[in-house]
Every structure is written in C-alpha cells, then in structure tokens.
Design a protein that fits this description.
The protein has 395 residues and is mainly beta. The protein contains 2 helices and 24 strands.
Length: 395
C-alpha cells in the first residue's frame, strides 16, 4: 500500500524517498480527507426509537460516544506495521538507512536481510471536524543499530531516521453520526467502491481500528479493487498496525501455524460467541431512490443510521470465515489476524461483498471484527459493524 510520506534523517536533514513508496513533501495545510472517507449516520430523529434511546445511540461529534471515542484513541501510540500483498504475504520494507551513507532503496541491496516490520508511532486527534491520523515509521538501520532501541524506538531522538506519513482526516461531517465505539474502534472508507477507469485499477482504501480491553489495538488498512475475471471485488494489498498507548510493540510477524481442525475458527476452538453489546456497534446505510440535486454530495445522498446491537446471545456465523478470507502471518506473539474481501457465507450472501478485518489477541477469548458490506453490482455500502464477542463453551 503506497503512502504519502517524507523522510527525516539523523541530524535534521530531510530527503525525499524513492517514488516506489509513494513519497510526497508534506505541506503545512489542513489535511483533506480521502474521497468518501468517514461514514455518516442519519439524524437520530430518523430512528423510530424514543428520544432518550436515540440520544444513547448517537455517535455524532458532540455526543457522549464521540467524546469517549476520542479519549480512547488519543495520545501517542507505539507500534509495529507490516504490509501484505494480495496473497497475504508480507513485503520487505523498501528503504534502509545505512550509517555514513544515508537512505538506500532495498532494491539496491541484493544481499540484504529481509525486514518486514516498520517500527512506528501514531497519534490520532480530534480536529473538530473528524479525527486526524498522523504516523511516522523508523527506517531499518544498518551500521548503527543502537540508534533505535530493541523495542522499536520507544524513545526516538534526532538520531533516528524515519518516514512521516501524510496526515489523513477521517470521520468528517458535523451533525451526523460516525462509525465508532466508546472503546476506540472505528471504521472509515468509501460509501461506494469505485470501478476501474481508463484501464487502470481503481483502489478503494478501507480502514478499521479494533480495540481490546487490554489496552492494545490493531489498525488495518485494506486496498480493494474490482476483479478483472468477473464482477466481484478482491484484495489488492493490506497493512496491519499493532499498537499500545505510550509503549512500543515488538515485531509481530510469525511463522504459519499448523492447520486447525475443520470447524475451528482460527485456532480458538468451538463454542458459541456472545456479543458484548457495550463494546459493539452497527450502522445501516440508506440510499435515495432518486439522484440528489447536489452534485457536490460525494455520499450520493446516502445516510447512515446507528442501530441497536441485537439481543441474541450467539453471534451469527462470520468473523474469519467465508470466501476471500486470509489469515495473515502476524501471529509471532500469538495473536490471530485475518482480512477478508469476498461474498457468500458469514451471513453476507452472493449478491453482497464483505470487506472485513478481525483480530483475536494472544491468550484471549475475545474476538474483534470490523465489517463493511457492499452490494456487489453497484459497489454501494449497505451496512457497517464493529463487534466484540466472547467465546463461551457449550455446556
């Protein structure tokens, strides 16, 4: 997944990274959100619930849920990021910082050791009209490894060469609900998946943040494109960040584990999954029957409504199952992470496609899943869910 970035080298000198990492010089202007980035819900008055119930469900910028969300995601988070290709294979970090030489493209170092993880720092802040994500990545260093600590540079100084990503603002639009939870989970992305134009792939970026009660979180960015072989959609690439507030995270790339027995959901065994309604949220999108007059409305007149999470004790089948599911080799510390772009199964059906990310923390019985469901033919988004559930054994 390409990033708009700048390179910061020791001593304060700056250089522009090679085009292969999608580098652009950062401008000190207010960042713009990507097209259709940020999911909007309808006014609470659209709901048939009572006024008090609608207030409880509201996730607008000034709501109690939004304020709790901002508090949960705020601060500086240390982490580790890994890029994956369409097959779920991790890709080598494209740059090295060679002490005494400077930055060197990895492609120019044929005898290099592969490095799959970026050591990272990230900050998410409330900017009044949405949330801004700012992040930086430490370059793998050769010849002066002490410049960054073994725990990923928890104390970064001027002697650390780094790449700074261009900030992005998500969840924009005042007076409307947002796809967030009080515990810091969110989903953001296009309301309509874009088709290819002029023979080039149209890449749609979908973002998830999955938050655990342990204080850790996993952020996932998925690049989605139209298939060339049929009318479906597929994964083009993915990026996974594992983070902790005020701490650093060791590399989390691991070897593939043995295949689970049939019927198991990624090593967590059988049993039923009980949804934690306090930590979960669901949103349904409505599209107008006629084309809106406002040509500048990037959302096509669509509106989201936050809906109550169901009373059912057992979560519907899904979360790590179905066409297009990839278990990523990100379990070096025992975590289970998967992504999915596909239809059929998991309660989705053949006429819809699920864009999904899931995470089961190491040693935990809790499962976190973010899912966006689109119509296959039109690419229109229909619903979003952010669910946390707990496994319970059958008696």
């Amino acid at each position: 997944m390409a990033h708009a970035t700048r390179v910061v080298v020791p001593g304060g000198a700056r250089g522009v990274a090679p085009p292969r990492v999608g580098v652009a010089r950062r401008r000190r202007l207010r960042p713009r959100a990507a097209a259709n980035d940020g999911v909007v819900a309808a006014e609470s008055s659209r709901s048939s619930s009572s006024s008090s119930s609608a207030t409880t469900l509201s996730t607008a910028h000034d709501s109690e849920t939004w304020r709790a969300f901002v508090a949960a995601v705020a601060g500086e988070w240390g982490g580790c990021a890994v890029n994956f290709d369409a097959s779920g294979t991790p890709t080598d970090v494209p740059l090295r910082y060679v002490h005494g030489v400077g930055r060197v493209p990895a492609a120019n170092m044929p005898f290099r050791d592969a490095v799959y993880s970026w050591q990272t720092k990230c900050e998410i802040v409330d900017v009044g009209d949405g949330a801004e994500i700012s992040s930086k990545r430490a370059l793998p260093t050769i010849g002066n490894e002490d410049a960054i600590s073994s725990c990923g540079g928890s104390e970064w100084g001027e002697d650390v060469a780094r790449v700074e990503d261009e900030p992005v603002v998500i969840l924009r639009g005042r007076g409307e609900d947002k796809t967030v939870t009080k515990r810091g989970a969110f989903s953001a992305g296009a309301r309509r998946l874009t088709f290819a134009m002029d023979g080039a792939d149209a890449i749609n970026v979908v973002r998830f943040c999955l938050a655990d009660e342990s204080g850790a979180r996993v952020r996932v960015s998925l690049s989605v494109r139209r298939k060339t072989s049929d009318d479906g959609w597929e994964l083009a690439s993915a990026e996974v960040w594992k983070e902790r507030k005020g701490q650093c995270v060791l590399d989390f790339i691991g070897v593939e584990e043995e295949e689970e027995e049939e019927g198991e959901a990624f090593g967590v065994g059988g049993g039923e999954w009980t949804i934690d309604r306090d930590a979960s949220a669901r949103f349904v999108l409505s599209w107008p029957t006629t084309t809106p007059d406002d040509d500048d409305d990037a959302n096509g007149g669509s509106t989201f409504a936050a809906v109550a999470v169901g009373e059912e004790e057992e979560e519907e089948e899904g979360g790590g199952r179905g066409e297009g599911t990839l278990k990523l080799p990100a379990g070096g510390d025992g975590d289970v992470v998967w992504v999915r772009v596909g239809g059929g199964g998991g309660g989705v059906g053949d006429a819809r496609v699920a864009v999904e990310a899931g995470w089961i923390p190491a040693g935990s019985k809790r499962r976190h899943v973010g899912r966006r469901v689109h119509d296959v033919a039109t690419g229109r988004l229909e619903e979003v869910s952010l669910t946390t559930s707990e496994r319970r054994r059958r008696g």
